[in-house]
Design brief:
3-stranded antiparallel beta sheet, 43% strand, globular
């Protein structure tokens, strides 16, 4: 799903979603947007006051059970990505979410992500890949947890990291000095 905010504070999309009828999609809210992301089921808009606004796709063909959005508040970061649940070859794709609260704790959905990030503190970011979750702590160090029995990525020695990006098989960290650090398998072929 691709979305944008125009100069006159209207939400536009290239996905065919009908989003014009959402009552929160007004300039007063969109002017406060600090982050926007989406997946095949939801558009998520995070505002500077930590409030999360959501819009469900009209055609929820995947049928993924959404989080209880009322509990997702006081956020400083939000992430959504695909994960794969179950044993191969019966793995099924599902959409996952991770949110970093303003107090540095992390919440996750579905349960496999929630369990992976439970107890994480002092976080700045939490990024989801197909097989793990990686967190960036406020001190620039990182932590990782595997999903569905996968081993965690080895990010234990990372320091002075500014931001991270996680894929299905890897994680990249951008350090304060502009160098990159990598973990995972960049040449892994998907099942």
């Amino acid at each position: 799903a691709m979305f944008g905010i125009t100069e006159d504070w209207r939400l536009v999309n290239a996905s065919g979603w009908k989003v014009e009828n959402e009552p929160w999609m007004v300039p007063e809210v969109l002017k406060k947007a600090v982050y926007m992301t989406g997946n095949d089921e939801y558009l998520l808009v995070l505002t500077e006051d930590g409030k999360l606004y959501t819009c469900q796709c009209e055609d929820n063909a995947l049928g993924t059970e959404p989080p209880d959005w009322e509990q997702w508040n006081e956020l400083q970061a939000i992430e959504t990505a695909w994960i794969f649940s179950g044993e191969y070859p019966k793995r099924r794709p599902m959409i996952a979410y991770a949110g970093v609260r303003t107090d540095g704790s992390v919440m996750g959905h579905p349960a496999v992500v929630h369990d992976a990030v439970k107890g994480w503190t002092d976080m700045k970011e939490a990024e989801i890949g197909g097989r793990w979750v990686v967190g960036l702590k406020t001190d620039g160090s990182c932590i990782s947890a595997g999903l569905e029995g996968e081993a965690a990525l080895d990010v234990s020695g990372w320091t002075e990291v500014e931001t991270i990006e996680v894929g299905n098989d890897f994680c990249v960290g951008l350090k304060k000095d502009g160098t990159l650090v990598f973990a995972g398998d960049f040449f892994h072929e998907m099942d």
